[in-house]
Design goal:
This protein has one domain: 3-Layer(aba) Sandwich (Glutaredoxin), CATH 3.40.30.10. The chain starts with a helix and ends with a helix. It is built from 7 helices and 8 strands. By secondary structure, it is an alpha/beta fold. The strands form 2 sheets. A 5-stranded mixed β-sheet has the order 1-3-2-4-5, sandwiched between helices.
Length: 190
């Protein structure tokens, strides 16, 4: 009698385990698979050859330019790349720009090309232009302090804000809104 009861209990327990395993398997098999978002790097025109190609493409497409000046062994440049330029929110925003990257450590003419842009005491240096004929507009980024200059309503009037993909986007858009003559005057007075 006891043995028969034990067999029935064991059979019921095994049956319950099979039902439970079946339910778990059904849940995972019926659930839509999570498709990871593919890694899409930001396409940059790099160094001297890329600079010339990027400017030519900007002239043909009418897209604004975004120029990043960096050097090979720059800790802040690496941090900016890792923490901000790889962010998918910022990548989506930067699609509307022709992106040029000049590495002043390179053996080509990148250092001389970088001299066409206003001097920035810290790297990475970021500039935007509405078109190739527009003056380079600096985006003042302090990576190590995690701050970015937010011009409002003009370039000389504004304030530093915490550095994030959102504030980078805002700073770029606000800087591009400033009329060229106002920006020229403000940058010459500073």
């Amino acid at each position: 009698m006891k043995q028969q009861l034990l067999r029935h209990s064991l059979g019921a327990l095994i049956g319950a385990l099979i039902v439970l395993l079946g339910a778990v398997a059904w849940f995972y098999l019926k659930r839509p698979a999570e498709i990871p978002e593919p890694f899409t790097p930001i396409i940059w025109f790099e160094n001297e050859r890329g600079y010339l190609k990027g400017r030519a493409e900007a002239m043909g497409s009418g897209k604004p330019l975004l120029v990043l000046i960096e050097k090979k062994r720059c800790r802040r440049c690496k941090l900016f790349e890792e923490h901000f330029l790889r962010d998918k929110e910022l990548k989506a925003e930067l699609k509307k720009f022709i992106k040029i990257r000049l590495n002043i450590s390179a053996t080509d003419n990148s250092r001389n090309l970088a001299r066409r842009y206003p001097y920035q005491s810290r790297l990475p240096a970021l500039f935007v232009q509405n078109n190739v004929d527009d003056m380079p507009r600096p985006i003042h980024v302090l990576v190590d302090l995690e701050q970015i200059w937010m011009p409002s309503p003009s370039y000389s009037r504004g304030n530093y804000m915490p550095l994030s993909p959102t504030t980078i986007t805002m700073a770029i858009n606000e800087t591009l809104k400033i009329p060229r003559d106002v920006l020229t005057k403000e940058l010459n007075n500073s």
